[in-house]
Write a structure and sequence with these properties.
Blueprint: H1 17-25, H2 33-42, E1 53-56, H3 63-85, E2 94-97, H4 101-119, E3 123-126, H5 133-143, E4 147-150, H6 152-160, E5 171-175, H7 177-182, H8 186-192, E6 200-205, H9 212-219, E7 225-227, E8 230-233, E9 239-242, H10 264-285, H11 303-319
Parallel strand pairs: 1-6, 1-7, 2-4, 2-5, 3-4, 5-6
Antiparallel strand pairs: 8-9
Helix pairs in contact: 1-4, 2-3, 3-4, 6-8, 10-11
């Protein structure tokens, strides 16, 4: 720990003042236990000994930094070795796959701050809807980034164009793997990835699904590290993961199981009832102080569904006597 209270992940890794400053700029002054665990288990100065890993942690607990920092530490060590050898090695050394353009953009912004702005290590974002795959290919060829962040379809296109040489990849990251599987991207992901053991693979997820272990067996080398929580099987035979959230405050995470054939209206009613049920419990156990408020974040896929949930909530509010106030902000577009 330095004099200002920032926990340096590994002094021998050469995490410099610029990186510390970039993290402090976005409010990161101490690592969570999960982040410390990730850096301890996923970074090794002898890169050949770097383990594959699964980061299981709740939304908001810092998974992005948990998988970005080991890669940055590796790159900083690479730069030291390249200076000693008298030459710089260009080319993509790490990729990160995410299920949607918006999620990829979020990871890219954090990576650009740490890698590019703080350390001069180039990062590229390659997703559909922003520019053509030819433009992405041109960007990679000209800028020669070390880390490329994108969606499976676009990354597969770049591989087919021989712009993304996966044989040179040293680290491959799969974030939100539960959503990658739900979105039907499994085949594209497997077509992009190097096989288990060929390089370091890091997976991250906030939830454990029934088909997760099968997918992990295809992507992670035997003996991979589990970080932030352990996947177990509950009394019903479903895979779940147990972890201790380090999100500030009294936070609970809820998930709704919905039938595949549900219409948006039916889905909206399920969400509305679940939200109000949760708030009944919060209000009943919370302080009677009028200053204390409970908040709920509801993640949905489309603006249409978001609008329907608002309507359903208002209908439910008319038939229950409950001290709940809500406001619906602009939808989170996945």
């Amino acid at each position: 720990m330095d004099g200002k209270g920032f926990i340096v992940p590994n002094p021998s890794a050469g995490v410099n003042a610029e990186t510390v400053a970039a993290l402090k700029k976005v409010g990161v002054t101490r690592w969570t236990r999960m982040q410390e665990e990730a850096m301890a288990k996923l970074y090794d100065e002898d890169k050949k000994n770097s383990s594959d890993g699964l980061i299981c942690a709740a939304t908001g607990s810092g998974k992005t930094y948990a998988f970005l920092m080991p890669v940055l530490m590796r790159f900083l060590l690479d730069e030291e070795e390249e200076e000693e050898e008298g030459g710089k090695k260009d080319g993509v050394k790490a990729i990160a796959l995410l299920p949607t353009r918006e999620l990829a953009q979020q990871v890219f912004e954090k990576a650009r701050s740490l890698f590019e702005e703080a350390n001069g290590i180039r990062v590229s974002l390659c997703v559909g809807g922003l520019r053509s795959h030819d433009k992405d290919a041109e960007d990679i060829s000209k800028r020669k980034p070390k880390l490329v962040i994108g969606t499976p379809g676009r990354m597969l296109e770049l591989k087919k164009l021989h712009v993304l040489d996966v044989s040179k990849i040293e680290v491959q990251i799969l974030d939100e793997i539960d959503r990658l599987l739900d979105g039907g991207f499994e085949n594209d992901v497997l077509d992009v990835l190097r096989p288990p053991g060929a390089c370091q693979t890091i997976c991250a997820t906030a939830t454990a699904r029934g088909n997760l272990r099968r997918f992990l067996n295809k992507t992670l080398a035997f003996g991979y590290k589990e970080i932030g929580g352990k996947i177990t099987v509950d009394e019903n035979g479903f895979e779940v993961h147990k972890n201790s959230s380090e999100i500030g405050g009294n936070v609970a995470h809820c998930a709704c199981a919905l039938a595949k054939g549900n219409s948006d209206n039916e889905t909206a009613q399920v969400y509305a009832k679940a939200i109000l049920t949760a708030f009944r419990g919060f209000v009943a156990t919370s302080s009677t102080s009028t200053e204390e408020k409970s908040q709920c974040l509801c993640f949905v896929e489309t603006k249409s569904l978001c609008d329907k949930i608002e309507v359903a909530l208002q209908k439910e509010m008319n038939v229950v006597s409950h001290r709940v106030c809500f406001s619906l902000f602009s939808y989170w577009r996945w």
